[in-house]
Amino acid sequence: MNNNTIYDQLLQSYSEKNLTGITTQLIGLYQEKQYDILREVMATVSEFTGVREEKIQRCFAYLLKLYHPDRTKYYINFIREHYRSGNYDQLQHLKHIFLVEDMDFATMRSATIDEDIDYHPEEVWDDSDPGFVFFNEEQMNMPDDIGENTIEEKQHDDFISAVKRKIYGSMEIDLPVHQLEDLEEIEMAEYEISSLDGIRFCKYAVSMDLSGNNINDISEIIECRLLKELYLSNNQISIIDPIGNLGDLTQLDLSYNQVDDLAPLSRLKHLEYVNISGNPVSTDQIEKLKKRGILVVN
């Protein structure tokens, strides 16, 4: 295939109509929980982009940003500029779209594997370290003003219990506060979490996936000010005021909640992507985000 042919085909493939078609199919796969197919698309694209991602929320967000029709003008200008300049190698990096177009999504099947819950430890902690502070049952029942190294635990559907279950496979083991402070990535999708009590100690986290839980109050997230990625899809959230204080946030997934007011997002200067599909959000609010150059999935 010569450069002239590649140029013509790229212009056709990166048209608004074609990108809309690809995006529609990707959203459909996500809604149907065809996660393995999305990962296969991601793997195909990664051969050209060098970006590899297995976590489904990040995978979906990346693909949406890659093929969203809002990027049509950018791609057309990019293709024409490098073609005129003779930078044909740059055009080669965009050829992944040809492979995606050829995928027969209708006949592809995702594996029926229960993917998210992992009851095995991901890290080993040295409990002989004198610097560790543990939460025992007596401390957990103390009032909040006793000190920062205490967490009150009254139920088994809270964040702390879910962390114990994931790391230790048991909720009866004491949890070191050091462990929460050291976490940079929190992958707690579909852990039946109703309360985020204790998540405020994860103050150095840069990414959180809390999708598929029963969360309605996210007030404690306000303390996690270093977050860049926050995935909260399929919960029971209606008020998102605390998110407005996460000044470094770039990616946000609020899909399938009960959010009707996006005003807090106006304070997020670095926000690039937000998924608000399945929420009763007005068109006016969506347009305000788009005018800021934010990629909005609705």
Describe the fold and architecture.
With 298 residues, the chain is of the alpha/beta class. The chain folds into 2 domains: 3-102, no CATH class; 134-297, Alpha-Beta Horseshoe (Leucine-rich repeat, LRR (right-handed beta-alpha superhelix)), CATH 3.80.10. Helices cover 36% and strands 7% of the residues. It has helices spanning 3-13, 16-31, 35-49, 56-67, 72-84, 88-92, 96-102, 137-140, 159-168, 177-182, 283-291; strands at 134-135, 175-176, 185-187, 207-209, 229-231, 251-253, 273-275, 295-297. The protein has a 6-stranded parallel β-sheet, with helices on both faces. A two-stranded antiparallel ribbon has the order 1-2.
What is shown here, in short?
This protein is of the alpha/beta class and 298 residues long. Helices cover 36% and strands 7% of the residues.
Q: How would you describe this structure in keywords?
A:
2 domains, alpha/beta, 298 residues, Leucine-rich repeat, LRR (right-handed beta-alpha superhelix)
Please describe the topology of this protein.
Blueprint lengths: L2 H11 L2 H16 L3 H15 L6 H12 L4 H13 L3 H5 L3 H7 L31 E2 L1 H4 L18 H10 L6 E2 H6 L2 E3 L19 E3 L19 E3 L19 E3 L19 E3 L7 H9 L3 E3 L1
Parallel strand pairs: 3-4, 4-5, 5-6, 6-7, 7-8
Antiparallel strand pairs: 1-2
Helix pairs in contact: 1-5, 2-4, 3-4, 3-7
Specify the CATH class of the largest domain. Alpha Beta
Largest sheet: 6 strands, parallel
Which segments are poorly predicted (pLDDT under 50) over 5 or more consecutive residues? 110-154
Would you list the SSEs in sequence order as H and E? HHHHHHHEHHEHEEEEEHE
Give the overall average pLDDT: 83
Number of E strands: 8
- What is the terminal separation in angstroms? 38 Å
Structural class: alpha/beta
- What is the name of the CATH architecture of the largest domain? Alpha-Beta Horseshoe
Q: Give the number of helices.
A: 11
Q: How much beta, percentage-wise?
A: 5-15%
Question: Over the alpha carbons, how many angstroms does the gyration radius reach?
Answer: 22 Å
Helix content: 25-40%
From the 3D structure, determine the CATH topology of the largest domain: Leucine-rich repeat, LRR (right-handed beta-alpha superhelix)
Domain count, please report it: 2
